[in-house]
């Protein structure tokens, strides 16, 4: 704190802790005793408007209130981004539907693909036949030993006649691994006596008898049934299950 003697006008630097307005002080130059004056705080600024010197007084600026939209700017940006993504996703779905809709260029291109048409026709024909009364059993053949047999009937569940139905059977272990696999045209039933007495060659010849196949496995009407028998001349010891399915069928020619 700077104080001045009112008589000789000598300035003195007094520590702030000793400054008490009204308290008496003695001038070391002229010996004058005078009360300490009340000092007024002055703010001195430099050329740039910044306060300088020991008499600088600083005040805390009042908080600035931001507009509501600035406070929630991040939330607004996130919501806008999500909205744009939803619009773009929905637009993509509409474009895909328009491209794959019947009559569109993409749908027309796919429908003209011979491979797709052939696959669709194959699946339609396979789906027109249902297998019923399927059973699997083991027979002791006097010539071969133990043989595995799968028998059943193929049913035409379509509205048009079918023919040359082919089935495929698989023998599998407990983990569904294929142990043996046989394809067979339907139309040749086998009796228990034949299964017990015919040799391996005779069984194969009987199952591929063209007369029986032409008689029973052609022009099968809607709702018609045709027998099938599949023989495995070697029975795997670890056989646990089996699978049989239709793998081929034809439309019967119009008569």
A few lines on this structure:
With 255 residues, the chain is α+β, with helices and mostly antiparallel strands. Helix content is 29%, strand content 31%.
Describe this structure in words.
There is one protein chain. The chain is of the alpha+beta class. The chain contains 7 helices and 12 strands. It has a 3-stranded antiparallel sheet. The N and C termini lie far apart (128 Å). It has 3 domains: 2-52, no CATH class; 72-112; 123-251, Sandwich (Immunoglobulin-like). It has helices spanning 68-71, 73-100, 105-111, 114-126, 192-197, 200-207, 210-216; strands at residues 2-4, 11-13, 24-26, 33-35, 44-45, 51-52, 129-141, 145-156, 162-172, 178-185, 225-232, 241-251. Mean pLDDT is 82; it is low at 41-62.
- Please tell me how large the radius of gyration is: 52 Å
* Envelope shape: rod-shaped
Which sequence of strands runs across the widest sheet? 7-8-11
Give average pLDDT, whole number.
82
Structural class: alpha+beta
- End-to-end separation in angstroms reads 128 Å
CATH class of the largest domain: Mainly Beta
How many strands, which pairing sense, and closed or not: the largest β-sheet? Answer: 3 strands, antiparallel
CATH architecture grouping of the largest domain: Sandwich
Sequence stretches where pLDDT stays below 50 over 5 or more residues = 41-62
**Helical run tally:** 7
Strand content: 25-35%
The name of the CATH topology of the largest domain is Immunoglobulin-like
- List SSEs in N-to-C order: EEEEEEHHHHEEEEHHHEE
Summed up, the domain count is: 3
Total number of strands: 12
Helix content: 25-40%
């Amino acid at each position: 704190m700077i104080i001045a003697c009112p008589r000789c006008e000598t300035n003195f630097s007094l520590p702030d802790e000793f400054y008490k307005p009204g308290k008496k002080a003695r001038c070391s130059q002229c010996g004058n005793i005078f009360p300490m004056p009340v000092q007024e705080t002055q703010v001195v600024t430099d050329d740039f408007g910044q306060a300088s010197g020991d008499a600088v007084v600083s005040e805390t600026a009042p908080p600035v209130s931001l507009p509501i939209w600035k406070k929630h700017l991040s939330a607004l940006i996130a919501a806008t981004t999500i909205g744009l993504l939803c619009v773009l996703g929905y637009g993509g779905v509409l474009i895909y539907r328009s491209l794959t809709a019947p009559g569109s260029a993409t749908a027309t291109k796919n429908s003209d693909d011979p491979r797709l048409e052939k696959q669709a026709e194959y699946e339609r024909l396979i789906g027109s036949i249902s297998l019923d009364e399927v059973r699997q059993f083991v027979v002791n053949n006097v010539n071969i030993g133990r043989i595995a047999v799968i028998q059943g009937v193929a049913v035409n569940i379509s509205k048009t006649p079918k023919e040359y139905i082919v089935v495929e059977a698989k023998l599998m272990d407990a983990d569904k691994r294929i142990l043996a696999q046989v394809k067979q045209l339907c139309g040749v039933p086998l009796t228990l006596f034949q299964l017990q007495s015919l040799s391996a060659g005779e069984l194969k010849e009987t199952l591929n008898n063209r007369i029986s196949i032409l008689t029973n496995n052609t022009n099968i009407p809607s709702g018609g049934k045709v027998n099938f028998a599949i023989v495995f001349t070697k029975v795997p010891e670890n056989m646990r299950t089996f699978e049989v399915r239709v793998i081929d069928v034809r439309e019967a020619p119009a008569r």
